[in-house]
Automatic annotation (TrEMBL):
CC per GO annotation: membrane
EC number: 1.7.99.4
PROSITE patterns xrefs: 4FE4S_MOW_BIS_MGD, MOLYBDOPTERIN_PROK_3
Entry protein name: Assimilatory nitrate reductase catalytic subunit
GO BP terms: respiratory electron transport chain
Group of enzyme by EC: oxidoreductase
Stored InterPro entries: Asp_de-COase-like_dom_sf, MoPterin_dinucl-bd_dom, Mopterin_OxRdtase, Mopterin_OxRdtase_4Fe-4S_dom, Mopterin_OxRdtase_prok_CS, Prok_molybdopt-oxidoreductase
Species this chain originates from: Actinomadura citrea
Entry keywords, A to Z: 4Fe-4S, Iron, Iron-sulfur, Metal-binding, Oxidoreductase
Presence of keyword Iron-sulfur: yes
GO MF term list: 4 iron, 4 sulfur cluster binding; metal ion binding; molybdopterin cofactor binding; NADH dehydrogenase activity
Annotated 4Fe-4S Mo/W bis-MGD-type domain residues: 1-57
Length: 701
């Protein structure tokens, strides 16, 4: 049976898979070996992806609530869409267009992300749109933009990693977050290359590394500056490259001078010999990579943290050299494309700035509106969520592709804001925790039921193909947006055909940083994907963008001096332990999808806190016991997992579960001043053992 070649519904590796529609039998997944990212591999989430199509509580009819306290009840599409049109119309008449907000997601196809941004700007006329990618790679995007003039995940095809001589992974646990990615690193190690991992935990990834640096959460800047100090002290910097291809090095050299090895060790807890070894491995390799992910990026100083790693990569002469470079590991399925086509508060399609008059004129021309009618920049994700229902904030929210009740920082406060809205509309295919709080729920088609394009972590544009028919009663997101646009009497064209929307996206992106104008569905098919920028039909696409020059005004990469500052909330007598958060293999994000897939729910059934036996011993916490974890924002109840693989001053809670076990009841919404990224990766907590049921004594069996 041939099946339909497509890609995984989950992460940014976008592993190739074939879907076999078995008719009366369940749909089956097999890995594709013609897709370089996974070359025949899949992780457990990929293997079980088809179960998403048949989850028992799949949404198949619109629902609405007739009154604040009334339950959600099935209704017709016309009724649901009419209510949205009427209520948003009333709010806009009363309070102006910014009283209606839109929130998107990095899992949406390029076509949907593009259409959602356009819908907000010209159908609703609101500036208030942002998306969950703000919580994801926005710090890496901001730092890449200021260093290279562009933000595109990896510096080249993922297969380049196999011929690297050294890869430094800062805050990435790829063995769990994109398992087939490991094969490229394994190949590199088999060829003599070294894997260096920077993570406060000895993760599954760190266990496979040649060198593991285990810093205190929130101290990566001191570590990277310390590594740079050592590189300079040992004469390992590439002075010729620095002179020819960069600017601003002197200021960074001055900063690095102050991070002498003992000082860096004191701040980070990483022994000097390990730092020295890391620098030597990176500097002596003919090809090398420095890669960051959320562990280094999700900080109130996330942009500066990424800059500190980019400075190191630039000093070693890596970016713009074939087979070497700096990269950020994009996270969500379309984390890359989702950040290029205008669902970001400050952005228009093609990675254009919404406050740039030329960009406004170009995009307004494609949309058939007056540039003066386009709104300006809006609020960033957390600022938007925390303004909902306030005096000057939006009174209605239309949400596509996110579950902030579980995934937003300080989630209890965000939940309260959602509750203060006049109207919450959620489009989803499952009743997520956020959908359950909505006034109107719109059931959408999912991944294998519709087509479109996704841009993976390499910057390669791929085709997602429809393999099965959606259930009766659901609509695609494009159909929902078109129906609403029509009711709102919006200007412009609102096609429901992904191919037609992609055609418009190509024109809107033409001339922008993320130029897709030369990419067509046919080319993607024939060439196994096309790398942007691709400005014309005869352009080959750009697998390695910086080889000749950087897309900055003078063609040079820019060093940015950055100083260590520490976490926004440090530990103290009341909250003496660092909390960091992240992921486990079998669950995806807020868990809305994976908690419904039986083998995944069995593999990772509930929330837990990982803590060192020394800390557990001091607190009287035993393996498997209930623990109440408290921060200044709230408390979560989780199960203890003791492991020597984590620093004894730090605990880890994955964020995939709802209710009382939500890691985000604890997290600190302190925002990065540039990227507006919240500090998901470090805050201060205290831990209390919970009495075992039926016995008052804490920790008793
Ligand atoms: N199984 C699974 N895979 C996924 C996802 C998922 O939810 N589940 N989500 C996808 C998405 S959207 C994303 S963004 C990626 C994320 O992929 P990763 O960034 O690999 O995932 P995280 O677990 O969030 O964080 C990585 C590591 O950062 C470490 N860390 C914590 N604090 C610090 C610090 O201060 N410094 C450093 N250097 N490290 C620190 C944590 O211990 C953790 O092991 O994964 C994608 N893939
Ligand atoms: N504490 C802590 N919090 C975190 C993080 C962390 O490391 N620690 N990581 C952050 C990161 S990196 C991310 S990316 C966010 C992710 O957090 P969320 O935005 O909550 O991510 P998902 O769980 O993927 O939510 C996607 C929702 O949209 C639905 N959906 C999927 N595809 C579509 C579609 O095509 N159309 C529509 N209409 N709906 C769709 C899914 O069913 C699901 O309910 O979480 C952030 N939150
Ligand atoms: S690594 Fe990511 S894309 Fe690949 S199968 Fe797993 S979840 Fe899917
Ligand atoms: Mo993410």
């Amino acid at each position: 049976m041939a099946g339909t070649p497509t890609h995984c519904p989950y992460c940014a590796l976008q592993c190739g898979m074939t879907l076999h529609d078995g008719g009366s039998e369940p749909v089956r997944v097999t890995p594709r070996d013609d897709v370089p990212a996974n070359a025949g591999g899949l992780c457990q989430k990929g293997w079980t992806a088809a179960e998403l199509l048949t989850v028992p509580d799949r949404l198949t009819a619109p629902m609405m609530r007739r009154g604040r306290a009334a339950p959600l009840e099935p209704c017709g599409w016309d009724e649901a869409l009419d209510r949205i049109t009427a209520e948003t119309g009333r709010l806009r008449d009363l309070h102006g267009p910014d009283s209606v907000a839109v929130f998107g997601g990095g899992g949406l196809t390029n076509e949907k992300a593009y259409q959602l941004g356009k819908f907000a700007r010209i159908a609703l006329g609101t500036s208030q749109i942002d998306y969950n990618g703000r919580f994801c790679m926005s710090s890496a995007a901001a730092a890449s933009g200021r260093a290279f003039g562009m933000d595109r995940g990896l510096p080249g095809p993922v297969t380049d990693l196999a011929s690297s001589g050294a890869v430094l992974l800062a805050g990435a646990n790829v063995a769990e977050t994109m398992p087939p990615f490991m094969r490229h690193l394994t190949r590199m190690r088999e060829g003599g290359g070294a894997l260096i991992v920077v993570d406060p935990r000895r993760t599954a990834t760190a266990r496979q590394a040649d060198l593991h640096l285990q810093p205190t959460p929130g101290t990566d800047i001191a570590l990277a500056n310390g590594l740079l100090h050592l590189a300079l002290a040992e004469g390992l910097a590439d002075e010729e490259y620095i002179a020819a291809r960069t600017t601003g090095f002197d200021a960074v050299r001055t900063v690095a001078n102050a991070y002498w090895p003992d000082r860096a060790e004191r701040i980070t807890g990483v022994p000097v010999p390990l730092m020295r070894e890391a620098v030597r491995l990176l500097a002596r390799a003919a090809r090398a990579h420095v890669l960051t992910a959320r562990g280094s990026e999700q900080h109130a100083r996330g942009t500066d943290t990424v800059s500190s790693f980019i400075n190191l990569a630039l000093a070693l002469g890596l970016p713009g050299r074939e087979g070497s470079g700096y990269g950020c590991l994009t996270g969500q399925g379309n984390g890359q494309g989702g950040r290029e086509h205008g669902q970001k508060a400050d952005q228009l399609p093609g990675y254009r700035r919404i406050d740039d008059p030329e960009a406004r004129a170009h995009v307004a021309g494609v949309w058939g509106v007056d540039p003066g009618d386009l709104p300006g920049p809006g609020r960033s994700a957390y600022e938007l969520l925390s303004a909902l229902g306030t005096a000057g904030g939006p009174k209605a929210l239309l949400l596509f592709g996110s579950n902030p009740v579980v995934s937003a920082p300080d989630a209890a406060a965000v939940e309260e804001r959602l509750g203060a809205l006049d109207l919450l509309v959620v489009a989803d295919f499952v009743p997520s925790e956020t959908a359950r709080r909505a006034d109107v729920v719109l059931p959408t088609a999912q991944w294998a039921e519709e087509s479109g394009t996704m841009t993976n972590l390499e910057g390669r544009v791929l085709r997602r193909r429809r393999a099965v028919r959606p259930p009766d009663g659901v609509r695609t997101d494009l159909e929902i947006l078109a129906a609403l646009a029509e009711r709102l009497k919006a200007p412009g064209k609102w096609s429901t055909d992904p191919r037609a929307v992609f055609g418009e996206l190509r024109r809107a992106s033409a001339g922008g940083i993320a130029d897709y104008s030369g990419i067509t569905y046919e080319r993607i098919e024939a060439e196994g994907g096309v790398f942007w920028p691709c400005p014309s039909p005869d352009h080959p696409g750009t697998p390695r963008p910086y080889l000749d020059r950087f897309p900055t005004p003078d063609g040079r990469a820019r060093f940015v001096p950055v100083e260590h500052g520490g976490a926004a909330e440090d530990v103290d007598a009341d909250y003496p332990v660092y909390l960091t958060t992240g992921r486990v293999l079998a669950q995806y994000q807020s868990g809305a999808q994976t908690r419904r897939v039986r083998p995944l729910a069995e593999a990772a059934p509930g929330p837990f806190v990982e803590l060192h036996p020394d800390l557990a011993g001091r607190l009287g916490i035993e393996e498997g016991a209930g623990v109440r974890v408290e921060s200044r924002r709230g408390a979560a109840t989780v199960t203890a997992r003791l492991t020597g693989a984590i620093r004894s001053d730090t605990v880890f809670i994955p964020f995939h579960w709802a209710g009382e076990g939500r890691a985000n009841l604890l997290t600190n919404p302190a925002l990065d001043p540039v990227s507006r990224m919240p500090e998901f990766k470090v805050c201060a907590v205290r831990l209390l053992p919970l009495p075992v049921e039926g016995d008052g004594a804490p920790g008793a069996r």
